Amino acid sequence: MKDDLLDRAGYIYQSLANRRERLERKIEKRQAKGKSTEKLEGKVAAINEQQNEVAGLVSDIHGLGASTQEYHINSQYTPSPGGTDGFTSYNTQTKAIDINISQSYGIAGFAHEATHAYQFEKGETDFNRTTGIDRGFLHDMTDEINAYRRQFVINSKSTGVSSLSNITDSYIRGLNSAYKTLPSMSLNQNSTLHTINIAHQLTSGITYIPNLGNDGIKRYIDVKSTTFSNYVSH
To answer: Which residues pair with 73 in a beta bridge?
Structure first.
């Protein structure tokens, strides 16, 4: 599946390059006639934006392959009735990050979930150390926006929008009830506990109470007594 995605990405990148060249020739002709090229330049900018996403996706895939962290692609995942077509999780048994992709989710879905995997690699997202499936306190809106942008450039129809500019905070929150309380603020492993606390409090209303553990490390504990230390990040 990885090779299929890389092949697809290469084809899309070249197709976008060809479209840009045609547009640039039209721009030159219109400029020579003293006509406006604003709309054409807007199309070129949109193509450049898509190419950047494709290039970023390819870079991420190669980054996962070069990592010492194990990433396992499960392309035979079968979702339960009404369940999600795919997801990325922390395998509590093997300590690997599992990228689970159903047949219906396909290459575009793999692009989405591989993006989440590389977010873990960079310390931009985390997982519950006990369940492995639940996402951690670092999971925020920017994680999903970036993943859907990558999904869009591989197969725009899979996202239900016509442009990268349509992949916004409000679009993401409308897709899944679980996304409604995601912090809008970008969080990562370098974010302070105070920043993480405020980010979640603003969107979900949950207040985390500072607590000094037996090891002397300050953590935030919510009403369910889960702490930041229960989550694993790269």
So the answer is: 99
